[in-house]
Amino acid sequence: MMSLETIEAESRKTARNAAKQKKTPFLVEQEDIDTWKASRSKLPFPALGSYKPKGFKLVDSLFCDSSGFGTESEPALTYRQLIDKLEAGKYYSLGDCGQFQVYVNVWEKIEKSA
Description:
3 helices
């Protein structure tokens, strides 16, 4: 099991790399959700760690199972439960990652005022 210090250190490292590469969250569309419901394919969310990209506002974090062995009675969302919570038009990324769980961060794009 990973210690909290290890998880935080990995999150900072991931955030530095995401900032260097100017990564942004992934925009989910309804077609994506439909595909993932049918196929259980790997989700393309970029790992941002604690990085907060410009132009985006963090609106939620979803605690999810990343092992594939979680059950719906556990606190971490299963793959199917996560897919059911995704919303078209929102942006998603991976936040803090542990050995068996991950936070999936939910973002909204900030509109620039004219």
